Amino acid sequence: MLSELDQILSSGETALSHAASLQALEDARLLFLSKKGALASITERFKEVPKDQKPLFGKKLNEVKSRLETLWETRKGELEDAALESSVDATLPGRPVPRGSLHPLTQTLYRITDIFARMGFSLAEGPDIETEFNNFDALNTPSDHPARNEKDTFFVDLPGHPTEGKLLLRSQTSPVQIRVMKNSKPPLRIICPGRCYRRDEIDATHAASFHQVEGLVVSEGIGLADLKGTLEFFFKELLGDKTQIRFRPHFFPFTEPSFEVDVSTPLLAAKGKTWLEIMGCGMVDPAVFAAVGYDAERYTGYAFGMGVERLAMTLQGVPDLRHYEQNDLRFLSQFAG
Ligand code: DAH
């Protein structure tokens, strides 16, 4: 029986160490090392071994078993490495991981807020759902003003909401002025970026939801020259040194006097346009100060509000603002960088 064991060892060694594939190796393992293999069956016949040879046979049996197991493990490793190597082509280009980037409107918004931050403005925010008081009344907007019509503004019905008066989706960022003034004392120098909502027909230049950046400065001795100087600096920073601005008299309920601001920049001239209407502004109306409890004899201030989409379209050469909302990667990826 000892010679039989030698036989198993030598044929097992050959079969295991020369297996040409993982399948051949598995066949060899079944033949020699499995529960029904040659080693298992000779172990079962242990009782047939003459008593005096039992210790020697037992020792030899263990040696053969561990030798064949080691061979199996080594060969398995070799065959697996080979299989992996033949399936990897290190000369193939890697799979690129697409890199994300900020939305083009966010990029524009950051450029705007950066410039004002350098001038010492701080950031204020308000909710998209506003009270009719903050969005209109406190901003000196009479109840028969057309913007307060259901045709122009989205009113919101929240049953059981504790707020007095009606709620609406803010139609402008101007109510953030009211929130800030109600909660803090002058001097103030803030900008308030945010989303606004109007019941507009949607086309290339109108959306039911869009973004504005509001500005408010309140202190003693603030005048129109401060407003004009600030805006001139801002637009030159944003649109380039050759940018010009002009003020046209206008009307807003919350400023007196009020203006619309037009800009002219080489970016526009390249498209055959001259002046682009870009924002509203003016000196804060004393009625607004009264609504928030500020002393209108002591304090003066200016305010402005600009449309972010319009500026982004100018800066980025985008002809239709609907692109900004469609989330089409073919559009968005052009602004990655
Ligand atoms: N809220 C105005 C609008 O949406 C823009 C505006 C005009 C804001 C004059 C102001 C301002 O702060 O002073 O059309």
Describe what this molecule looks like in 3D:
This protein has 2 domains: 2-86; 104-335, BirA Bifunctional Protein, domain 2. It starts with a helix and ends in a 5-residue tail after the last helix. 30% of the residues are buried. It is α+β, with helices and mostly antiparallel strands. Helix content is 42%, strand content 20%. The mean pLDDT is 93. The strands form 2 sheets. It has a 7-stranded mixed sheet with strand order 1-5-6-10-9-8-7, sandwiched between helices. It has a 3-stranded antiparallel sheet with strand order 2-4-3. Strand 7 and strand 8 form a beta hairpin. The radius of gyration is 40 Å and the shape is elongated. Bound molecules: 3,4-dihydroxyphenylalanine (DAH). 3,4-dihydroxyphenylalanine binds next to strand 9 and strand 10.
